[in-house]
Amino acid sequence: MRIGVPSETAVGERRVALVPDVVRRLRAAEHEVVVEPGAGDRAGAPDEAYKQAGATLGDPWAAEVVVKVAAPSEDEAARLGSGTILVGFLGPLTNGPGIRAIAASGATALAMEAIPRISRAQSIDALSSQATVSGYKAVLIAASEMDRFFPMLMTAAGTIPPAQVLVLGAGVAGLQAIATARRLGAVVTAFDVRSAVKEQIQSLGARFFEVEGIGDAEGAGGYARELTAEEQETQRRALTAQMAKSDAIVTTALVPGRPAPKLISAEAVAGMKAGSVIVDLAAEAGGNCELARPGETYTTDNGVIVAAPLNVPSSMAEHASMLYARNVLALLELGFDFDDEVIKGACVVRDGEIVHEGARAAAEAKPVARPQAETG
Q1: Is 223 a catalytic residue?
Q2: Residue 358 — very low, low, confident or very high, per pLDDT cuts 50/70/90?
Q3: Catalytic residue among 24, 27, 79, 117
Q4: In the predicted model, what is the mean pLDDT of residues 86-92?
Q5: Is 49 in a helix, a strand, or coil?
Q6: Which helix (H) or strand (E) holds 56?
């Protein structure tokens, strides 16, 4: 099998789909790997390392399988052949135009975010591997932005109390944020609408924050379901008091294919201490904080720092690429049997036909009309 690795062209994307160590393993299995020159430069993988691993430098788009991180641009999708299999984060529920462009090429496409969350697919679960990076980095961002210590310090000049950290959402990113904040010595409280994660939170040394009036809100695939408007309001009221006590808040709550739930109201931010930090990991879906500005970090009028970084895994490109490449390797080793539940679940386009229900709905959705600017 010939596998192509293009350079990533999406703005701010520094990761690469395969790293030299994984290329070496693919070559040992007698696969051919073609890497676009410079593809790994921003992830700490120079061309020479790929050559030493057995890859060829050249045009990756003529390969049987093209592996990417971000979804291809329209021009890149046009370079796919009718027999090509594309693998990457394709945004099947939100990237309608991109899915249509892939389908128009006649290619077959597997979305890494559509990998079923079942036991035998854990090694392929790229959403989880990249969320681990995001959760870790979010706490480092909070610690860097905050002008206070995380751990308790006992000095001759007196004792400094530990930081109070609140983590909203206890999926993979949230659990990694809890673990990282605890390693830095913070006192951590965590909240999730899924009661099943209570033991996981407590096992990491954090306190589980329960909201009365909201039952278990676990949905399909282990994700949280979308709360009703009444449940969201109950949740916001209950959390506001805890937010006022917090030195740092990390938010990670997402519902696949939908805008991120608003967990932090402007009123709650107004009640927080000056110098406190909010790191909103749901920025790409609109943010969990009402005051989040995706892609920006700024200070509110009352002195609260609100950070809403985009594509956090890309900021740790070397290790994020290493983890992602291992996910891709596990997928390639599984093979492309489209009757297999893992491959079938991840397949969004098959020979030019959109076969994933959510992707089909996104592709068929009409674009929202934008008001035209007045002239004259």
Answers
A1: yes
A2: confident
A3: 117
A4: 96
A5: helix
A6: strand 56-57
DSSP 193-251: S-GGGHHHHHHTT-EEPP-TT----B-GGGPBPPPPHHHHHHHHHHHHHHHHH-SEEEE
* Spatial distance between the Cα atoms of 125 and 113, rounded to a whole number of angstroms: 8
Rounded to the nearest 10 degrees, the angle between the axes of helix 96-104 and helix 357-364 is 100
> Any catalytic annotation for residue 370?
no
Whether 164 is a known active-site residue: answer no
List pLDDT tens digits, range 319-346.
999 999 999 999 999 999 999 999 999 9
128 counts as catalytic: yes
For 23-65, the pLDDT digits (tens) are 999 999 999 999 999 999 999 999 999 999 999 999 999 999 9
Check pLDDT > 80 for residue 368.
Answer: no
β 347-350/353-354 pair status: antiparallel
User: Could you give the CA distance from residue 324 to residue 326 in angstroms, rounded to a whole number?
Assistant: 5
Active site residue 122: yes
